[in-house]
Write a structure and sequence with these properties.
Helix content: under 10%
Number of domains: 2
Order of helices and strands: HEEEEEEHEEEEEEHEEEEEE
Number of strands: 18
Number of helices: 3
Structural class: mainly beta
Strand content: 25-35%
Distance between the termini: 104 Å
Length: 314
């Protein structure tokens, strides 16, 4: 790795060192949460200010906490955005601010000496030389790369996450109903699904993997009463306990049909929790979706109303 930027300056004049020391003393002060032009986080991430200084971007909710929904992991970011990149602002302006590369905290700044210029010629006349630093400890960095701004670069982690999500292939569920095909008004009707994955993955071309883990099932019974949510339900026994609906009227005006008779169109949707890994390490990506809805499955339920006639005898 290249020499640390901070240590490369040891040969400079004492007055310059004093300036850098002053800058370090300033930037190590934690920013105020109430500052009008303070740091921000990309939604849905929210900002917090730890006692150690700096700030942390955290996405609330999402993976269901440690061990939830098949092991979503911690909701804390795997990359510590509170590390201090400000020491370099006095040497080179235009810092990008901290960002995550997997579990590593990095930032980039405009090129400054004594670092070498990027290899090769400028891609075009407006290209700028920049240096990317990554932290090895909260106070030390190494040079990750020196590059021209118009060199072809990999997409951001958020762009990679969206690409990886788009590569997840989820099979539409098969919707099962009991009583099968025909049920009665005021009778519990049970719903469960089969044939879809409990976990599915998709990946980008740069080592980022999106992992979708089943969390819940949403049922629209088709009678206009609205959808309801069940925990993941894959057997009739589960449905009897966790996923049922009581129809209040017959399906005379239903939009589907069973055996040539009007029926309600039932739609089931699966909901997945999303988490991400970069080169095998868990990664929290600010702004990335935390849930994914699978493709719907459909079936039809005929609902009849039974009337009882009481006849007096004698």
């Amino acid at each position: 790795m290249l020499t640390l930027a901070r240590r490369a300056l040891t040969g400079l004049l004492v007055p310059a060192a004093l300036v850098v020391t002053s800058l370090l003393a300033v930037v190590l002060i934690a920013p105020s949460a109430e500052a009008a032009d303070g740091p921000t986080c990309d939604p849905p991430a929210v900002i917090s200010f730890p006692a150690s200084g700096g700030y942390v971007c955290t996405i609330p909710g999402g993976g269901g906490g440690a061990g939830g929904g098949g092991g979503g992991g911690s909701n804390e970011p795997q990359c510590d955005l509170s590390y201090n990149e400000g020491a370099y602002l006095g040497l080179s302006p235009d810092s990008s601010g901290n960002y995550c590369k997997g579990t590593t905290t990095c930032f980039n700044v405009a090129h400054f000496t004594p670092h070498p210029m990027p290899d090769g010629d400028k891609p075009n006349k407006d290209s700028k030389a920049r240096i990317e630093f990554c932290f090895t400890t909260p106070f030390d960095t190494t040079v990750e790369r020196i590059y021209w701004t118009d060199d072809e670069e990999p997409p951001s982690l958020l762009e990679q996450a969206l690409t990886a999500i788009g590569q997840i292939a989820i099979t539409p569920p098969t919707v099962n109903v009991s009583p099968s095909g025909r049920t009665l008004v005021n009778l519990d009707t049970w719903f469960w699904v089969t044939g879809t994955q409990r976990e599915a993955t998709g990946s980008s071309a740069f080592g980022l993997v999106a992992i979708a883990t089943l969390r819940s099932l949403t049922i629209d019974p088709g009678d206009g009463t609205g959808s309801f949510t069940c925990p993941w339900t894959a057997t009739k026994e589960d449905a009897e306990r966790d996923c049922y609906h009581e129809y209040r009227r017959a399906s005379l005006r239903g939009s589907a049909s069973v055996d040539g008779r009007p029926a309600y169109a039932v739609t089931a949707r699966t909901v997945y929790d999303l988490r991400f890994e970069v080169n095998g390490s868990p990664s929290r990506i600010p702004g990335a979706p935390t849930t994914l809805e699978g493709p719907p499955g459909q079936t039809a339920v005929r609902v009849d109303e039974v009337q009882t006639t009481v006849k007096r005898v004698g």
